[in-house]
Batch of 2 targets.
Target 1
Amino acid sequence: MDTKVIKSKFPIFKNKIKGKPLIYLDSANSSQKPKTVIDRISKFYSKEFSNIGRSVHSLAVTATNRFEETRDLLKNFINAKSTEEIIFTKNATEAINLVAATYGEKFINKGDEILITELEHHANYVPWHFVRQRKGAIIKFAECNDKGEVDIDKIKKLITNKTKIIAITHLSNVTGAIMPIKKIVDLASEKKIPVLVDGCQGAPHLKIDMQELGCDFYAISCHKMYGPTGVGVLYAKKKWLDVLPPYQGGGGMIEEVKKDNITFPGSPTKYEAGTLQTAEVVGFSESIRFIEGVGIKNIIQHEKEILEYGLEKIKKNNSIRIIGDPKNRGSIISFTIKGIHPHDIATILDEEGVAIRAGHHCCQILHEKMGIAASARASLGIYNSKEDIDVLSDAIKKCNKVFNN
Amino acid sequence: MDTKVIKSKFPIFKNKIKGKPLIYLDSANSSQKPKTVIDRISKFYSKEFSNIGRSVHSLAVTATNRFEETRDLLKNFINAKSTEEIIFTKNATEAINLVAATYGEKFINKGDEILITELEHHANYVPWHFVRQRKGAIIKFAECNDKGEVDIDKIKKLITNKTKIIAITHLSNVTGAIMPIKKIVDLASEKKIPVLVDGCQGAPHLKIDMQELGCDFYAISCHKMYGPTGVGVLYAKKKWLDVLPPYQGGGGMIEEVKKDNITFPGSPTKYEAGTLQTAEVVGFSESIRFIEGVGIKNIIQHEKEILEYGLEKIKKNNSIRIIGDPKNRGSIISFTIKGIHPHDIATILDEEGVAIRAGHHCCQILHEKMGIAASARASLGIYNSKEDIDVLSDAIKKCNKVFNN
Amino acid sequence: MDIKELYQEIVLDHGKNPRNKKKCEGFNKDAKGHNPLCGDKVHVYLKLDDDNKVKDISFEGEGCAISMASASIMTETIKGKEFNVAKKILEHFINMLKEGSKISINSLSEDENTTMMSLSGVKRFPMRVKCATLAWHTFIQAAEGKKETVKTEK
Amino acid sequence: MDIKELYQEIVLDHGKNPRNKKKCEGFNKDAKGHNPLCGDKVHVYLKLDDDNKVKDISFEGEGCAISMASASIMTETIKGKEFNVAKKILEHFINMLKEGSKISINSLSEDENTTMMSLSGVKRFPMRVKCATLAWHTFIQAAEGKKETVKTEK
Ligand SMILES: Cc1ncc(COP(=O)(O)O)c(C=O)c1O
Ligand SMILES: Cc1ncc(COP(=O)(O)O)c(C=O)c1O
């Protein structure tokens, strides 16, 4: 893959950071946007804008069609059975909150168990914490091993007759561990336990096929998929959407409104209250087209190469500890440098034009487990090259130099 | 005000609808966007994009600053006491859901009363319906009179010792009635009852000063203020944000995360979970600048002129019934034509390039009260002129002609 | 194209003076339809005999000219026809609304065909297709004895 | 500018070998500070005498070089000074970090001044200002006897 060509499609790379070319290694946080996405949003506002679904005038018809086209595209992209299974949310966080709130309200009671892992992002823990508080439920954490992965046996052991849902990440945003979702779904379905997958890091970096994975819920963050901010997606099997209560209430999600009662339509309408992120969803259609244009297989292959190159190169630096060493790993390298705090690393790297993230990456439980308060994280996107890794590696050496170690 | 100049700032007006100039009279649904807003979003994605608040690299610092600048601007625009009182949400609907869910959870119990009016948009009823269901609370509807306004006495009469909140629209999106918020707040504060104002139609068309209004909560829809889709705002008095529980859980809104407990920071952080609508919020800063550039006083004056001109002109048509005749009225004209269904009106008007909305405008209760299932609605924005009204009026005559009445 | 192609005389006539707008006597099936977006409502009453023939059909409701005309035309057209034929007609009707194709069903008289075709202008107005099909879907619902209200959503 | 202006020798030295990093004996006030974004934590122990003089001060915690150095430098600088003087120093310190102004306080020795000024490089790194001020805010919190953890948010 020619990353020069790819980079040229992302306007951000025309900019210099502190006089140096931008080496963007923070895609797990949020990815950059190709010109086609940016221009689609401008074009939508300039030529097609109207509120959707609510008016019969021409602009509204066009806007509605563009919006629903994205739902169609996405349905095919993730191989959902129907567009009714695709709900647009504000972000992946809202998608998980939606499930926790509605499923929690209807199916989780005092003493019931919610099974998550020590790898989870706060987005896949805090919403369940609220259910715990509200319902008196119990949260069980499947343990993460030294390699930064969760063994499926650890999950198996924690499943009981009280387990009401398993909520698990597809790809850890700290260790890069890829979880064996299909196997976990098989395990869970023996006991008819639904599985929610936090697909924030899965969707941009793996082939995601809902029929193959078989999970009940899958949360997506569009801004990590080269898409606009302000949109997330909840995929949910129709059988759940048919029985779960609505989440937020407002215009567009009602059927009949009386003073003493309100009835609701089916999905996705039931879950899309108020004015939607029209321009953002329309813009996102170009992200899907972009990913499909490059080809998800090519993306996987390319990122694998860069990841391996990066791991090898960085491991050579003796002062570095890489967080986790999962067998099955996605495009993330979290690390610490002896004697240098991750925040200081990030600052020094930034002087070299290298953008990484430092902190707990919304995974305090995992960091505590690893015995650290914070780490530095380099995460890959489709635009990264081996040269980017070389710059990163040199910048890390600079950290050692500044700190005289 | 020279609407030609104003229109030239909105790229959408360069487009033809069915070969005719676009006459956009659907701003109460969603307003069009000036070029400065559209370009700001493009520029942000092209030159400054990064996830905010979470990284220390240069892009993240810039993005965070741009984002928080908007909060500052908005704080001044609505005269809030501090930026801690400004929470960014997905839309106004989410803002009201946030209050209903958190205030409802903490302060509303079985038998308690929620006081709303028959004018309310579904966004200011359905969330309270959920509280009613969950808590066994009672919703009381202050009656709307023939003029399409709610007399303050009707509200006064319904206040009891069980009233826990008053939730009320600032400007009806059907009749245009402007409610006397300050007086209602005075009434409510005697009994220490908080007042939530649905400011969706207030914010784009009225001077909104939180210190003057004195309300406890105010919900805003940015896409109706010439801003991007995907952003709403909840203004809330700090004293409430200090005591209300969090709403959605996830990254960014936590303080310390342990397996058995989680603590949360103060507002607005507590209420902004997950990746925010970065580009949209940054784009919204240009909407505020645009409104301030034209001047809210000028906007009010201009829209008043057009409204009066429109009302007079449309009233001349004997087959028309205008819905409501409030003393204090904002820039909305809802109407029906004898013998012609609103949907048919909208279709015929669209052939003339005139975009209006037909339906119940998310106000079924109000429409039922008025004895109709639907109405046609022409709503004004800063870009509308008397000529637009002339085209509307001719197009309405065309409806009469098509239907031979 | 002129807006008159959507609002043809036949459509306006049926819209203003809908035929069979009542509860027909002796109906043995009925169903409700609802378009929450615009508030169109229809209630179809049906007398289906043992051979699945539409002995009588009528409707009540309120809505736009297109939905009322379509309901009225439907009742006129399928009264006396087999349920299967009615289904076939609906298929052709939907194709006409969506693809612009002609209706060609042997069991339709020339008059009936002309009347049905008067709704062909809807094709250019995709947001109005639901108005034109609501009564038909409700009729199918009634005939098949399903209980839920037919809903045309976003 | 070189990154070395941020990480000056004095800063690195205090970062690696922080002074007064312990629980000082006989402290009568203490407070905790926390930066949830990066996990920096600090716990300040303070012995304030009846005349509001800082008899002793120390800290415990973990965090980046800037936050540790700043905490260490703070304890060295304000030990033995009046609380009011300490507050004045903090004011100048914050102005230095935000506006780039010099610190000019009579009661600071030349050495103390140089040491404080070693953190002036932070100005160019707005995201790091919180790191440099966390310990100071926590000290104020302790001195004023407030109970809540100091939090530096977004
Ligand atoms: C009065 C009123 N309240 C609430 C809303 C809902 O706003 P939003 O769709 O932005 O959530 C609207 C607009 O649809 C409105 O006009
Ligand atoms: C694994 C994982 N889950 C959830 C999230 C939250 O996604 P969002 O911020 O888009 O809601 C993220 C990203 O921050 C993530 O990496």
Note: Chain A has 15 helices and 17 strands.
Target 2
Amino acid sequence: MAWFRKRKNKHGAGEGLDENLWVVCPDCKTHVHRDEWFAAPKVCPKCVFHDRLTARERLDITLDPGTFREFNPEISTSDPLLFTDGKESYFTKAEAAKGRTGLNEAVVTGSGKLDDQTVTVAVMDFRFLGGSLGSGTGEKILLAADYALRHRRPFIVFSASGGARMHEGIVSLMQMAKTCAGIARLHKEGIPYISVLTDPTTGGVSASFAMAGDIHIAEPRALIGFAGRRVIEQTIRQKLPPGFQTAEYLLEHGFIDLIAHRRDMRNCLSRILRYWKR
Amino acid sequence: MAWFRKRKNKHGAGEGLDENLWVVCPDCKTHVHRDEWFAAPKVCPKCVFHDRLTARERLDITLDPGTFREFNPEISTSDPLLFTDGKESYFTKAEAAKGRTGLNEAVVTGSGKLDDQTVTVAVMDFRFLGGSLGSGTGEKILLAADYALRHRRPFIVFSASGGARMHEGIVSLMQMAKTCAGIARLHKEGIPYISVLTDPTTGGVSASFAMAGDIHIAEPRALIGFAGRRVIEQTIRQKLPPGFQTAEYLLEHGFIDLIAHRRDMRNCLSRILRYWKR
Amino acid sequence: MDPQKDFDQELKDIEAKIAELKLLAKDDSVRFGTEIAQLEKEKADLETSLYANLSPWQIVQIARHPQRPLLRDYIEGIFSEFIELHGDRRFGDDAGLIGGLATIEDRRAVLIGHQKGRTVEDNVKMNFGMANPEGYRKALRLMKLAEKFRLPVISFIDTPGAYPGLDAEARGQAEAIAANLAAMASLEVPIIVIVTGEGGSGGALGIGMGDSVLMLAYAVYSVISPEGCASILWRDGAKAPEAAAALKITAASLLEMGVVDDIVPEPLGGAHRDPQQTLANVKDALIKRLKKHARFSPKKLVETRYEKYADIGRWKNWW
Amino acid sequence: MDPQKDFDQELKDIEAKIAELKLLAKDDSVRFGTEIAQLEKEKADLETSLYANLSPWQIVQIARHPQRPLLRDYIEGIFSEFIELHGDRRFGDDAGLIGGLATIEDRRAVLIGHQKGRTVEDNVKMNFGMANPEGYRKALRLMKLAEKFRLPVISFIDTPGAYPGLDAEARGQAEAIAANLAAMASLEVPIIVIVTGEGGSGGALGIGMGDSVLMLAYAVYSVISPEGCASILWRDGAKAPEAAAALKITAASLLEMGVVDDIVPEPLGGAHRDPQQTLANVKDALIKRLKKHARFSPKKLVETRYEKYADIGRWKNWW
Ligand SMILES: [Zn+2]
Ligand SMILES: [Zn+2]
């Protein structure tokens, strides 16, 4: 529910370049050559900071070239509340997000091959309204899970979300239940479901499909948690410890199976898929 | 495994009377009239200390008079290791325990009515080699569970045990697995299993059937835990907090459903049984 | 005086006056009779005008009213029996999310629900009904127990939200709720949910998936608190009334959106104005739903529940 | 020097001398050749006499030998693949009880097992292979994962026991082990258990119920440590050798009592004297067992496992 907060300045370096040739790492401020930065992709060679990827970027580095077939690109935002904050309506906001991202929703779903193994994937895009979970998002994830079930294909979801999409009100909250209903069927029918948690995975997404996987993989230092840091600090009236709600913190506390560097992620997924397929 | 340690002096008041008419509460040292003490039974009216009951005493206050039918009273101790400590053999020790208690094993099992509801019960007797879990104990509990399964009757086990019976070595340890195999069948077939944890329930008994119930009821202040206090203190090199490993402690830590005073236990069990029967 | 909070102050004044007069009328019924009758009429008119068009924010006040019935009140008033069971068998026992074996008119059900306190002391213990992971895990354990014994589950929702504390995060608040959603989606016994007060976001939904989801007339259910929404949208928590309206969090809105299946009526002005009537209404509604879902096989139940949730926010349902 | 601990000191001395002579022999093979041959024969004789009649306490020393292969050695040497999975999804990740997806000669299995450390640093992390409740709960989660994917489970046992700490008690060490026993009793996939070093009481059994339970020739498995038994019986931990004998904790005794199904041979003197051979033996034994149990239906598996455990300590089996 926090995607509309001001973008933290440590993110988004890929967009705001220092000059044409160099990218400044949002975390350690190292200057990285633009080619090197996007080849990594978007991983600082010095401090291993993993900057956020768009859904297309994620698909590109994950699937075999030319194998991705998208599901339901037409599914878009709905506005069940006719929500407006008085100045701007959700409808306008959503249209702007569509224009800016070229996406119709905060998730891209489809089927493709990963190292020659057919998988069903859903990839969230944080740029689209903070990767928030709206009815279109939930619908696309459910349809993808349903496809995975019917074709008995492993399902991989890359999360990146601030949580539920406030502007769709209760309908947004219900997408948590809806997506988990889809996941529950995969569990019952023995279909592998891998949840990949990337920066950030919080709120209603962390409290639903992202935390209901057979295997949970996280990218290094990704922010993962239920409540927002500010809310927690106000509640407990103390500062949070360093490293709180990072992927490493969650690994230590038993909620993540493994952390994979972005350059190893495809290989890691491939190994697991190959294991199941055998 | 600790039943042969010297009996803690806070227990066993029922046997060592101050004089003929009075019992001294092992905990608060109040003098209680013998009749009152045994009517309670064995609960201090002042500090609510629950002294240990024999299996027969427990059956008497739990089941409807004259309804108990014992299973397998012939099952007795086995001596698979031909165990001896050099001075005394396990065989001799076990014979002595039999003579002293009139029991053949540390548990009495059977069928009876509790407030007019047919139940299968197993009641451990701490006097018999510290209520230790030997092959005979495990066998009787398994047979009782099997009876409960076949007749679809609720199964109630009253634990009182220092743990596995060292003198039967690995065969004793395996009784943990054996009894749990019986309990697992009850879970699978929807047969209610209530575990009543009385003082003390530790070691291999707490780590098997006693902690695998649908519902866990404990008597007030009963000692319940896995490792012995001395071992823990030696391991962590510090004194244990007051109230550690009591029923109240376990309730607070989420392992006990409810604590019932001895005078309420029968009524509490009856309510639960009646609930299931309806 | 907060005008939002005490919008029914005028009514309270009249009621106090009536009570006073009635006391005096004991001695002199002739003198006060007309006056009382007059005030009673005034009161009825005021009630009608006051409660006929409550704003969503006023409904929030009713949903959070300190005298509104809490779970323990429903348990005592509706259920002929309740055997409370404690603990998650993992870490602790959560006083803010309780559960046990319940009986309602000879029908058995495993009851789970948020428990707020009415006193400060109770609220410290119950954390204002904001559950910790061990609360959700206790609920899950009890739901599995219900499944073992083929008993339906009744879930009472009344929480500001799941507790946003450091320890709650460390012990996996997100995972606890996620696990419950997956489990409730495939639980092979009926689940009846009723939102009685505040339905606070994921903390509510964590025990809130069901075959029937009911809502009291003045309950609210929202993805975010109006205050939270207002401070995000306008950086001003005081604009909560506007947010409450924008979020469409009332029972009527939720029924319209297909998120709740039925509205359980409350006395005019809210449950706290006639708790007995409220309890009776809730009881009737629960029994009706228990009867309805008892008919289905486990398989059919789970399938129907799946379809129900799959349909919420179905693409093309809106446009 | 502790005579119990270094019973093979004489052998070590001869080995050192041979190694020394072999080094010298590089320059002058004629001169040292006979001497070396003589020593080799002495060594062989000594080995035979030394290891032919090991006392149970000597076997305990071998089972605990610092150079004995640990789980990571088996994983590297036997399994062509291992994808380690972490965490219990409740509280933490236990480095002393690990698990993951493993492949052994094109057969897949979920692997769980105790992990001791070889360095002080590792042992602090792994708690000397003494698992906490989160270790047992991680194992349970992985076993359930195995069941979802119909994969067999292989469990490696090597622990002094479950950790007897204050926090472990607070988080339910007893419940964690009990829950595993009940779950393993009804798990619908094959479970192969192998005791490779120390089988320490409930801490071992907590991941130790299986369709086949194997034991390395010099492993031990006991309801209590010999030291613990001695200090109870004689209030003297130094009498552990006597206790080790009385408790019948060796593979041969356990096979005789029907608690283990087969003994996996070790090189003369123990696994540490030829780890490669040991690994090969373990691999063969595991594959044989995987093949054997793969044949049965889930129902048959669970029934057979029940009968197996029901039979241990059957009344009238002894007398
Ligand atoms: Zn950097
Ligand atoms: Zn007393």
Note: Residues 52-273 of chain A form a domain with the 2-enoyl-CoA Hydratase; Chain A, domain 1 fold (CATH 3.90.226.10).
